[in-house]
Design a protein that fits this description.
Order of helices and strands: EEEEEEHHHHEHEHEHEHEHEHHEHHHEHE
Number of strands: 15
Number of helices: 15
Strand order of the largest sheet: 6-7-8-9-10-11-12-13
Helix content: 25-40%
Bound molecules: 3-[(4S)-2,5-dioxoimidazolidin-4-yl]propanoic acid, fe (iii) ion
Shape: globular
Strand content: 15-25%
Length: 397
């Protein structure tokens, strides 16, 4: 198939949108085999069936590289408590927060978790998302961590979307191990990681490195096991304070360090040297009324690729919109519309270790979005408006 009459934002480099007006894109199965100006279409492709896009904007399909979208229940009541003065950390220490979602997730059936997760997946697909990363971490026991990962895998069988899973056993210390984080890592987290990996349920290993969660020594023990299993790592680092998570992520050659509001210039240098992506999560920044903006200028100066994701979760970021994430990144973090688009495409792909996604180039996977828009800045500019015209997933419209 040839897509013709397209205004293509190829994102072939990070310097600009790589716009081609009156462009054509040749798809062969699930692969892009040619992209360029319509008049330059090679003769060999002239007889293929054509699909006229009416001059619409085409971009790589969007990628949400950090979500916790499989969970039970919701935390609207805690949202209300925070607005009545309680802090996120206070609620967590009182057994709410992540732990209240753990209780609801343990109680939920696999079927109910799947049905609930699909409502969020559908919202993302409706905005042109083609790949979603989904973490475990609301089970914190063997059975429920495995259940969450099975549900994440099932999503791919129910919807035209690709799912990458991350094992996040080191997300919080469950009530039954209160005050005994090391015992939790040894008795539950590491054995569950091995079991989940043996069942083919894990694509990467994540952790929450924070005062209210795990320190760098505890995370390093989980990362050592991940490395032994040949799994890539990533880390929630420097979200609420700086305790060295970003440096640890860099030391382990992590795919990404995520949140990073409290990261320093030295942390940015370490990420650049390691080739680790900074995943920025403006939905959590916004929801938690955070005021510490991630060190965007340091990331720019040192050439750290910045990805953007929803962090879709019931506590700190009840957000299921990549477009709103882009808008928030521009308005709250002063990222440019080009950085925002790279953040949900090329750089998000890199944060997941997917080399063939996120740019419109020959050899890439044919995951594309067609927008009722003339310029790519429109995708970041509007608030609460979805201009998606159609989505092409692995070559299928
Ligand atoms: N950081 C976050 O923002 C989420 N997890 C994490 O490690 C919050 C998860 C939650 O509050 O349920
Ligand atoms: Fe998160």
């Amino acid at each position: 198939m040839i897509l013709t009459n397209a205004h293509v934002a190829t994102l072939q480099s990070d310097k600009d949108f790589g716009l081609i007006s009156d462009g054509s894109i040749v798809l062969e199965g699930s692969t892009i085999v040619w992209v360029g100006a319509g008049h330059a279409l090679p003769d060999e492709f002239r007889n293929l069936p054509q699909h006229d896009l009416g001059g619409r904007l085409v971009t790589p399909a969007l990628i949400d590289c950090h979500t916790h979208l499989v969970f039970g229940g919701n935390r609207a009541v805690e949202f209300e408590q925070r607005l009545n003065g309680a802090s996120y950390e206070e609620i967590a220490k009182a057994g709410g927060g992540i732990i209240s979602t753990v209780t609801a997730t343990r109680a939920a059936s696999e079927k109910a978790l799947l049905a609930d997760a699909l409502t969020r997946v559908d919202a993302l697909i409706a905005e042109g998302v083609s790949v979603i990363e989904i973490k475990s971490g609301y089970g914190l026991d063997r059975e429920t961590e495995l259940k969450m990962l099975r549900v994440a895998r099932l999503i791919e069988t129910q919807r035209p979307i690709e799912v990458r899973t991350s094992f996040l056993g080191a997300h919080a210390v469950p009530a039954e191990y209160m005050g005994k984080p090391n015992a939790y890592i040894d008795d539950v987290c590491i054995p569950t990681l091995r079991a989940a990996h043996a069942q083919g349920l894990v694509d990467a290993v994540d952790g929450f490195c924070e005062g209210i969660a795990f320190d760098t020594v505890q995370i390093a023990r989980v990362f050592d096991v991940a490395k032994g299993l040949g799994l890539p790592v990533k880390l929630h680092a420097e979200q609420l304070s700086n305790i060295g998570g970003t440096q640890l992520a860099a030391k382990y050659g992590a795919l990404s360090a995520d949140h990073v509001e409290y990261a320093t210039e030295a942390d940015a240098r370490a990420l650049a040297a390691a080739g680790t992506v900074a995943v920025l999560l403006p939905g959590a920044f916004y929801t938690l009324h955070e005021t510490q903006v991630p060190p965007i200028d340091a990331f720019r100066t040192h050439g750290v690729p910045m990805a953007l994701a929803t962090d879709c979760n019931p506590g700190s970021s009840p957000l299921a919109s990549s477009l709103l994430t882009m808008n928030m990144a521009c308005t709250l973090f002063r990222m440019t519309p080009l950085e925002a688009l790279l953040g949900v495409t090329a750089h998000a792909a890199r944060a997941l270790g997917l080399a063939d996604r996120g740019r419109v180039t020959s050899g890439a996977c044919a995951d594309l979005c067609v927008w009722n828009a003339a310029h790519p800045a429109e995708l970041s500019y509007r608030i609460g408006f979805n201009p998606l015209h159609s989505r092409i997933f692995k070559g299928t419209l």
